[in-house]
Amino acid sequence: MTGSAPLGGFAAVLEDVKRTRSKKEKVRIFSDYLSGIGAGDAETAARLATGRSSQRGSRDEAQVGYSTLLEVLREVTGAGREKVSGAYLKHGDLGEVAEELLGERREQPLFSEPLTLDDLESTFLRLRSAKGKGSGATRKGLVKSLFLRASPLEGKYVVKVLTGEMRTGLVAGLLEEAVARAYSVPKEVVARAHMLVGDPGLLAAAAARKELGALKMTPFRPVNFMLAEPMATPDEIAAHFEKEVYAEYKYDGVRAQAHKLGGEVRIYSRRLEEITSSFPEVAATLRRVEGNVILDGEIVPYSDGHPLPFQLLQRRLRRLEDFEEAARKAPVTFFAFDLLYHGEALTDAPLKERKRILEGAFRGVGTLAHSEPVKEASEIRAAFRRSRDLGYEGLVLKDPASLYTMGKRGSGWVKLKEELDTIDAVIVAAEYGNGKRAGVISDYTFAVRDGDALKTIGKAYSGLSDAEIAEMTAKMKELTVESHGHWMRVSPSVVVEVAFDSVQRSERHDSGYALRFPRIKRVRADKSASEIDTLERVSAIFSKQRLKLEGPPRGSR
Ligand code: ATP
Q1: What amino acid positions are annotated as catalytic residues?
Q2: Radius of gyration for the chain, computed over Cα atoms and rounded to the nearest angstrom
Q3: What spacing in Å lies between the alpha carbon of 336 and ligand 1's midpoint?
Q4: So what's the architecture of 51-163 in CATH?
Q5: What Cα–Cα distance (Å) separates residue 411 from each residue in 230, 240, 398?
Q6: pLDDT tens-digit profile of 138-190?
């Protein structure tokens, strides 16, 4: 294999990127590195630097669970459980644990050939294709062979990629700047190309080959979703737009981007992972749309004109049972609300125009999201009530002139939800339950983000069904990094949406706050730990609620 860049150099660069706090320096270091390697390596490096081992748009199947990584690390280094959990407590990051343990192993690798980015790529390919019976052992063997050859620093970054937790601070915007600087292309051109192809690897490779201008939005390359800005009241929303806008029902399901090219349909989740096989009947319907299209919409559990509980979707997403059974128990409808591509990209056309084309292409084939014109606060309030009465979550209000801003929480879309807030938090510890729940892990401590740190804000015992608790039990076991009898610390990975009655000050949790009567509304498999709510938001809810308590009494909700 000639010429692939050594993994050691890549790891050292990421380490430098991580160490400096200056964003400018991060950009400089990574761009200097990119300009010294070939286009193929740049593709791998840019993708890995964002914590992904495979192209966006596929399930990241090369990822390896914490328990497997810990097991292999113990085998390779001879470290005992105590030692490993001590190291985890010290660092709070599995990559750093690997670095420490690999540094202390008795025998350092003798291998004379250093690992390269190509070696890593080919291992990922094999990890992805290891499926079915015996694949657990194969995967373990593949990871072990990497650790046997890796230096401590290389091991650290192998783990970071395999867990998808890079934490170097090289966020998408900075990566774009690095690509722009490395290949002397204007930042705006890079940012735009990134939106269109979604994948940082393809972006870097195209820039290296001077082919950015040729990148186009294409079906089967998912792009980031446009997001909505939350607002609290109809009055605030009416004042924000000051004109007639579309009020759409806020459906409670999973966001989906459906791509059709020729006779084939692929559906992607909010995390840009392919979920087509979970919803074959949706794909079958969309296959009847004329032309090549990219649709945006929500897959909703729905039957006889009524929404069904969201929880029904979870099993379908995880494909736990055969499709016929799942479709019978949880029939779904795809509600389309936007069109990003119709033979050509439409993201720069105003929503009004996109909707006109969507209606032409989709009416009579699938179901369009309900949309009505509103302007005054009273009209917004009435539409909101109607939506809630029908069992939906609220409204998404959209400016007819707004462009489709990929990956942005633009002010062109605004959401109004039920007034009781929920918080997205990540589970950091768990416990076996009591009584009826003695054999299962049913108590979860969850945390919000405070800068780089996670701060706990509560513990939930309720909200999940027995079947969901059984699944959670297996998941928590898999994520355990340290166990003390019935209590365990888990790697922060499962995101839950928690409903609560109010926020209180608390000394019990290190955030300084506790949620009162927290209950898990749902597991947000579509969100990653980097997308959870912040401590800042919790304290804003706390202040708002004080205002409410201390302000004039409000009318009935
Ligand atoms: P939430 O937790 O409120 O669903 P989110 O962070 O997943 O929020 P946002 O963009 O903030 O995403 O809120 C809008 C979400 O509402 C979309 O991601 C989508 O899943 C859902 N949704 C339901 N109906 C619509 C609609 N008609 N238009 C746009 N989004 C809709």
Answers
A1: 250
A2: 24
A3: 13
A4: Orthogonal Bundle (1.10)
A5: 9, 9, 9
A6: 989 999 999 999 999 999 999 999 888 888 999 989 999 999 999 999 999 99
